[in-house]
Design brief:
Blueprint: H1 18-33, H2 39-45, H3 50-78, H4 80-100, H5 104-113, H6 118-131, H7 134-144, H8 147-166, H9 169-189, H10 201-205, H11 208-212, H12 215-245, H13 250-257, H14 259-278, H15 280-303, H16 309-337, H17 342-367, H18 375-403
Length: about 400
Amino acid sequence: MLSSSQVRFLDRQTPPHIMTLVLLSGLSALTMNVFLPSLPNMTAYYDTDYRLMQLSVAIYLAVNAVMQILVGPISDKLGRRPVLIGGIALFILASLGCALAPTVWTFLGFRMMQATVVVGLVLSRAVVRDLYSQDDSASMIGYVTMGMAVVPMIGPAIGGVLDSTLGWQANFWLLIALGLGALWLTWSDLGETKAASGKSLLQQFSEYPELFLSPRFWGYALASGFASGAFFAYLGGAPFVGSEVYHLTPSQLGFFFGAPAIGYFLGNYLSGRFSVRFGVNRMVLWGAMVNAVGILISLGVTYAGAGSALSFFGLMTFVGLGNGMSIPNATAGMLSVRPHLAGTASGLGGAIMLGGGAALSALAGAMLHPDTGVLPLLWIMAATAGLGILSISMVIWRTRQLRN
């Protein structure tokens, strides 16, 4: 494992500082959710239907998934640094387009283009796997993805305040400023961690079947995808639940919306602290179980007639806690099945996770109406949590088989 003495901040000749990787993953997370409290006001601004406006979540996740399929092999071919710099530059232009979009369709077009920021999430993980072993990388990914915990915790609250004081466009001006900062930081601190491949891009993409044929890769990818599926369904449905079912203002919704991130932060800490000791498989299984327990409790409270904004959003901390334990460890497992394909595995695994997330987000938005209450969302989340437990159980069974 690398020692801290080998890392010098803003020195591209040494491995990147962990804070650089945290901020890159955090920007990806912020782009996903900072504007969600503004969805009702954006719907009114563009004089459109809420379901159309809510597609800004689903299409972003869908394009994000496609981008991850491309980013992994391209970065394995060209290296991590140039792909990161190019992706962040495109993200800045897309954010400017979102802020100035005159119609909802123009906005949705630039919103899809914003998905290029996913390079920060995919390649921050791949950089870690370039530098560390499997269990150590699980620990480091846990710390790196704390950026995905802290930012969602404060992002919606900031977005709600910006919406109330400066209008919804202020959220995208914030993203432009942060994108410029991330571009400078990447240029200054992140040198190349992977030598450019001598293979053509076609040859890089042709290596996908090596991953497709690995049961353990699929087990880790699906465990991550189903565990996080509960959160993506939450992303698609919670703005509606908060505003239409519990009648929260944008600033109140922004405050409550970050509840899962509190648990995610703690789960990431537990991953960083205990993954080396207990191993990735146990951590993923325990996280998947915590995820399911929180959702089942929320279902029970709702059926008992005691549901409220406080109970719904508060119990979502269990979802965050479970994901914080599951996702870093499942990701480390995915990247370690075929270490020479770390970038490709990171992209493909992320695509599986976000592609499913896009579908679940759209499904949650389509199934929720004022007369349905919160139950359709909770049942979608419960189903994905159960499938997450099943997926990691398959990995554990397969691992035991390989040892015998």
